[in-house]
């Protein structure tokens, strides 16, 4: 997936060097302190990330009434889930909306303008999500793009593309995998990946 859109092979090192140079300049100018970046990283490691979305999806899998509320009023439903941090309605989470995959329909999340993304439930967006080629092609030919991700959607299944923005940030409730009837919420959450909540993959049983 990392080479799917022909990124330069040194992109990680190049961007890391730029980030470090910018960090050093901001510290020198007194805009931030040396601990600021560490604090931000800790937030994404412990509070904002796909582990939150996985808990929400797992609850939706075991509780049909909750799933309905999640689709109808995502913010209110997410607030019902115990153990989620207090950042769920903070930055990038103010206007989250969920859509559910099901028989005959598969949902795909993109952002044609830039890289709007529901940080509280998915963390930071991956490189390919921000790539102009992905953003334009996914809007024009979603089935072809999904196939390149290894997801061959039958022609009988409708593919719906949802365009995130500053007004609404979408995420997908993937279908519950077969053979998971005896699993609890924590075990089910372990089956949910960021890609399945973006619609470029499906959740599968371990």
Automatic annotation (TrEMBL):
Keywords: Iron, Lyase, Metal-binding
Enzyme Commission no: 4.2.1.84
Uppermost EC category: lyase
Transmembrane spans: none
GO molecular function: nitrile hydratase activity; transition metal ion binding
Binding residues for Fe(3+): 111, 114-116
Annotated ranges, domain Nitrile hydratase alpha/Thiocyanate hydrolase gamma: 15-201
Catalytic activity: an aliphatic primary amide = an aliphatic nitrile + H2O
InterPro entries recorded: CN_Hdrase_a/SCN_Hdrase_g_sf (IPR036648), CN_Hdrtase_a/SCN_Hdrlase_g (IPR004232), CN_Hdrtase_asu/SCN_Hdrlase_gsu (IPR023900), Nitrile_hydratase_asu (IPR018141)
Record-linked SUPFAM superfamilies: Nitrile hydratase alpha chain
Family assignment from sequence similarity: Belongs to the nitrile hydratase subunit alpha family.
Name of the protein: nitrile hydratase
Taxon lineage: Bacteria, Pseudomonadati, Pseudomonadota, Alphaproteobacteria, Rhodospirillales
């Amino acid at each position: 997936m990392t080479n799917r859109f022909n990124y330069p092979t040194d992109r990680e090192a190049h961007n890391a060097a730029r980030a470090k140079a910018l960090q050093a300049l901001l510290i020198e100018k007194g805009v931030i302190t040396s601990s600021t970046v560490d604090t931000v990283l800790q937030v994404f490691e412990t509070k904002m990330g796909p582990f939150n979305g996985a808990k929400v999806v797992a609850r939706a899998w075991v509780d049909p009434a909750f799933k309905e509320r999640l689709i109808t009023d995502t913010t209110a439903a997410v607030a019902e889930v115990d153990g989620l941090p207090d950042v769920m309605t903070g930055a990038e989470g103010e206007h989250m909306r969920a859509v559910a995959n099901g028989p005959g329909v598969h949902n795909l999340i993109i952002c044609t303008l830039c890289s709007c993304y529901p940080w509280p439930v998915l963390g930071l967006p991956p490189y390919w999500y921000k790539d102009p080629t992905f953003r334009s092609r996914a809007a024009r030919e979603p089935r072809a793009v999904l196939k390149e991700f290894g997801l061959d959607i039958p022609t009988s299944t409708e593919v719906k593309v949802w365009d995130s923005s500053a007004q609404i940030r979408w995420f997908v409730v993937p279908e519950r995998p077969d053979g998971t009837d005896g699993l609890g919420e924590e075990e089910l959450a372990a089956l949910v990946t960021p890609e399945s909540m973006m619609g470029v993959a499906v959740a599968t049983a371990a």
